[in-house]
Amino acid sequence: MKNILITGGAGFIGSNLVKRLLEKRYQVIVLDNLSPQIHGVQAEYTPAFNTEFIFGDVRRESDWELALSKADIVVHLAAETGTGQSMYEVCRYADTNISGTAILLDYLVNKKHHIEKVVVASSRAVYGEGKYKCEEHGILYPEAREEKELSAGIFDPLCPICKNELLMMPTDEESKIHPSSVYGITKLNQEQLVLNVCKALNISAVAFRYQNVYGPGQSLKNPYTGILSIFSTLILNGKSLNIFEDGNESRDFVYIDDVVDATIMGMEHNGTGQQVYNVGSGKATTVMEVATSLKELYQSTVSINISRNYRLGDIRHNLADLKRISTELEYEPKVNFKAGISLFANWVMSQEVPEDKFDQSISEMKTKGFFK
Fold it and tell me: Which of 183, 214, 224, 310 is flagged as catalytic?
């Protein structure tokens, strides 16, 4: 069996992927820095059987060299995540996501190795606002929403020609690429670097544009990303929910098991060359639906307040077109949102409730001018 290197293998997607790969009898190498923002302070990692753990950082060439020495396939998940935070921690996001990936590729170009495939975690954030339709002017890809419109409570993207509201469409892989956040820019750079260099080296490569991944095991400590975790922590700390915009903004929430399935399909696929795939549920769920569902599952009495606040860099809607991955990898999501959020909430209630730090993250964004 192949030796699989998973960067960020102690994280949410990574740890679930490790478990599944071990069940399939792969040898697994995990490279992770156990970031306190995600794992908490003094985090530890206990490797499972057939797993080698390297406590290291993708920004260090020596850690990559050690991790790559025995690997046949790289699944590169390690990254800084968080749309809002990326807007004011630009250097850290670029250093980890872009430079960390560049070090990997520099090694593949200049050193002897056995790598035959690279799988990189990209993001739907590369699309910015994604694909829309105007009844009069057809398919459009609106630019990032203007602050003057957001401040006036106009949250839905408008047709740049007739100024009418647009209809959200599933965003396919051929859609316009124009990220609206630093995080999205770094993810686009990651996938472009991997696909370009791997093509030159004749190494197979797959970039997965993950949608909003959720499920048991995701970090409850990180206040910068993961709306289900953020809302859960607030509710279980007895705090009201502050719903940005009007609550009708939507996301494509994809359950962790489906993400792991897709990732392994891409890793094991015999096709050569370089491919890009959306990974999602193909269904849009509003933020208000998330809030009310969690409140009901936790049997909570906290209030849900529509604040009409907004964050610069946020998108309005998010829905994946899954035709390509369904056709080429035979991927079909198995867990719908109703079942998935129940599984998530049941898991959360078995965990120790962490201290809520969401207000701290909002204060940071407000101070930097990105939260209104």
Answer: 183
